[in-house]
UniProtKB/TrEMBL annotation:
One of its GO terms (molecular function) is acetyl-CoA carboxylase activity. It comes from Izhakiella capsodis. This is Malonate decarboxylase beta subunit. It comes from the Bacteria. Residues 1-242 form the CoA carboxyltransferase N-terminal domain. PROSITE patterns: COA_CT_NTER. InterPro entries: AcCoA_carboxyl_beta, ClpP/crotonase-like_dom_sf, COA_CT_N, Malonate_beta.
Amino acid sequence: MRNDRSFIELKARERAQALLDNGSYRELLGPFEEIMSPWLAPQGIVPQSDDGMVVAKGTINARSAVVIAIEGSFQGGSMGEVSGAKMAAALELAADDNRNNIPTQAVLCLETGGVRLQEANLGLAAIADIHAAIVDLRRYTPVVGIITGTVGCFGGMSIAAALCSYLIVTPEARLGLNGPQVIEQEAGITEYDSRDRPFIWGITGGEVRYESGLVDTLIGDGINAVKSAMNDALAQGVPAQHRSDKYADFLARLNRFDTHQQADSTQIKRFFARREE
């Protein structure tokens, strides 16, 4: 694989392969195991043999690692019972490895719209398990989240991203609790026009999230840039304080925010400026 290729253009399996050391990739519960959601076919939806979730073990810089990559092109990267269980179990096993003196790093490639609506509470329960597993694992090793493509990271999985030790994004990435269509549906098009791409990226895009201090690193989309940022994050070790532990500060900022006027990227960058941290 040419390392100057766009990381965004890679499929989930290719992303995991690109991040792990050459020759170390070993997929767990791969497509030939045919572990897939049982809830899609009865609703007329063609399932995918790996359920859109790629879990790979290997090494990063000769150290044991698990890389979990979500396929954004399958069901919008949405999380169901099976895909969520695969991710949660992999993180739980990585935590067990660390408790058993087998240092195991973790990297998450997040391209997801959140819970799969067809699986409702089953998907939500799986995402809750993922949250708990990240919080458990990050005590031992950095959990690095990477968001690169235009699918972005939304819903309950945006909370998973926020729980990561470090977050890496590209300008093309998006990160938000609710997706544009959901906000428009609930609040109206005058509040949030989901077709206004400059506006959407100005609110939830990678650049504004970086300038707001909600992610740690903003990079280009080349494979080398992604790997370099990942290596730097892993080398930093476990943060003295995780971003999610600073909730009191973020709540205080939100309480000062004037919701009577439409937010824009300039206002958001100024309000959440890193100098306030």
